[in-house]
């Protein structure tokens, strides 16, 4: 049982021992009360500074003294929510609501945890209850609207945003959040206007600058977008990951690195590394010795790149370098525009011995790899991933399908067990070199927006990418091709959540696919 679960059932004796003096018991009670207050105050301070694990420890210490302390349960629930431990967060906050059903804060933060856990209907009810108890709390209105937007109840969300702005026209967050809603509806001009209004009110709010950066990149305005993208390191929630902390200077093309040793490091996910590692040869061409610092599962794959690069894992302690730069800042360094994207593929390669191990028996049929879902922790996963059952009509085609996923959700596994058309390699796909080897044997990869899309594209393999109505910024808007990957074809939702039309287009395209377009 975890510490947080134990704390919920912890108890202490409320009755002094028969041998204890009453005065001593009173002193202990006062000491405990003071101690609880101190633990809660420290927890609140740690929450404010972003040290969420330590904050959780402080609140749990308060709960260990008093198993019915409302403030401690709310604080622990908030910390657990940020730490993405949603089940425990919800349990703590539900207990807080039981302790004091008329506490607006308890309902509000329970709603936040439910929202993060994608339990939208329950979150909406909790926000509504919070508003009933504290109707003057603008934050609850905005969060309710955000949840309605995530649940694709766009008009309901818009009504609330409009109401908040009418009531409080200087509320920068309301403009920002309405801008997010407009973007969800693909009203890009309206979204940009709202982001600008938010920034006019609060010009130093990093979150607003970050949202504008992503929109500019989505619109193909790389000149502005990559400049604003740098603000992601200052945005709450580690929008761009963690910046390297070291005595050596950061490099953004602002000084010569000729004859210097520079570390190019990953600050985000696997797919981001695969996409932007293409810039490493360009940095080396400036006369620098390039060290690539990447997540451990990518080390062997990146080592196979052409070029004299040293590749190290993120967990390594490596200090012998002169400068450093995050991989995703390199488009800014090289002033990348749509027409100047470095797109020479392949630049990632499969290991030949491993590729031979994945030799496919039936070469008479088209060999197609499938990826239908990504990480459940991705912010937009509920829009980008597809239930395997949705792809069932695709499997009636005379094609050999191969599962490129290692992690399979429980519901999808049930479906997969009933689909002998799909050959799985769960135990054999240990790292990305294995996935690359299997991809090298295929004619085509069909995938949602995951790291496999980037791997196949970087290998020069024909890859069809299935995108939600509003995709990640790197796939731009309304195009069927990608400037980043010449062998990619983009299949886009025409309306929010409509994978049916995408599947119809996919089947039609697969029936006439010419597999002679591979660069491999």
From TrEMBL:
This protein's name: TPR repeat-containing protein
Originating organism: Methyloradius palustris
TPR repeats: 36-69, 70-103, 104-137, 138-171, 172-205
Gene3D superfamilies, per database record: Glycogen Phosphorylase B (3.40.50.2000), Tetratricopeptide repeat domain (1.25.40.10)
Molecular function in Gene Ontology: glycosyltransferase activity
InterPro entries, per database record: Glyco_trans_9, TPR-like_helical_dom_sf, TPR_rpt, Ycf3/AcsC/BcsC/TPR_MFPF
Keywords: Repeat, TPR repeat
PROSITE patterns reported in the protein's UniProt record: TPR (PS50005), TPR_REGION (PS50293)
């Amino acid at each position: 049982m975890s510490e947080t679960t134990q704390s919920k059932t912890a108890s202490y004796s409320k009755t002094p021992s028969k041998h204890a003096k009453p005065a001593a018991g009173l002193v202990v009670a006062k000491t405990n009360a003071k101690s609880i207050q101190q633990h809660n105050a420290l927890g609140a301070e740690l929450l404010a500074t972003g040290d969420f694990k330590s904050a959780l420890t402080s609140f749990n210490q308060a709960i260990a003294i008093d198993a019915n302390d409302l403030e401690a349960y709310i604080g622990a629930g908030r910390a657990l929510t940020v730490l993405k431990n949603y089940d425990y967060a919800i349990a703590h906050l539900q207990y807080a609501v039981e302790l004091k059903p008329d506490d607006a804060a308890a309902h509000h933060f329970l709603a936040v945890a439910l929202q993060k856990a994608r339990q939208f209907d329950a979150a909406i009810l909790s926000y509504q209850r919070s508003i009933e108890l504290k109707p003057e709390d603008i934050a609850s209105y905005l969060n309710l609207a955000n949840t309605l937007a995530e649940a694709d109840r766009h008009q309901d969300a818009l009504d609330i945003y409009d109401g908040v702005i009418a009531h409080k026209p200087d509320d920068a967050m309301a403009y920002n959040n309405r801008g997010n809603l407009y973007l969800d509806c693909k009203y890009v001009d309206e979204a940009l206007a709202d982001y600008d209004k938010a920034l006019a009110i609060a010009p130093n709010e990093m979150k607003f600058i970050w949202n504008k950066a992503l929109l500019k990149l989505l619109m193909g305005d790389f000149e502005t977008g990559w400049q604003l993208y740098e603000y992601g390191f200052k945005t709450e929630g580690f929008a761009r990951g963690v910046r390297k902390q070291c005595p050596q200077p950061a490099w953004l093309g602002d000084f010569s690195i000729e004859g210097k040793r520079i570390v190019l490091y990953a600050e985000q996910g696997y797919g981001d590394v695969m996409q932007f590692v293409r810039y490493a040869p360009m940095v080396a061409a400036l006369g620098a010795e390039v060290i690539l610092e990447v997540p451990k599962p990518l080390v062997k794959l990146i080592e196979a790149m052409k070029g004299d690069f040293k590749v190290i894992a993120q967990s390594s302690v490596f200090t012998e370098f002169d400068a450093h730069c995050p991989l995703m800042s390199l488009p800014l360094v090289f002033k990348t525009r749509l027409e100047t994207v470095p797109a020479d593929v392949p630049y990632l390669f499969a290991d030949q011995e491993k590729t031979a191990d994945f030799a496919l028996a039936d070469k008479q049929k088209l060999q197609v790899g499938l990826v239908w879902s990504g990480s459940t922790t991705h912010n937009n996963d509920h829009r980008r991933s597809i239930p395997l059952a949705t792809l069932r009509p695709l499997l009636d085609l005379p094609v050999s399908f191969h599962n490129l996923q290692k992690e399979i959700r429980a519901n999808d596994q049930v479906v997969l067990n009933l689909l002998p058309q799909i050959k799985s390699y769960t135990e054999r796909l240990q790292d990305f070199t294995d996935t690359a080897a299997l991809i090298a044997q295929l004619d085509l990869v069909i995938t949602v927006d995951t790291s496999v899309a980037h791997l196949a594209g970087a290998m020069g393999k024909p890859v069809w990418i299935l995108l939600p109505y509003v995709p990640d910024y790197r796939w731009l808007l309304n195009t069927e091709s990608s400037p980043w990957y010449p062998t990619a074809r983009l299949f886009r939702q025409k309306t929010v959540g409509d994978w049916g039309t995408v599947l119809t287009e996919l089947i039609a395209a697969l029936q006439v696919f010419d597999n002679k377009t591979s660069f491999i």
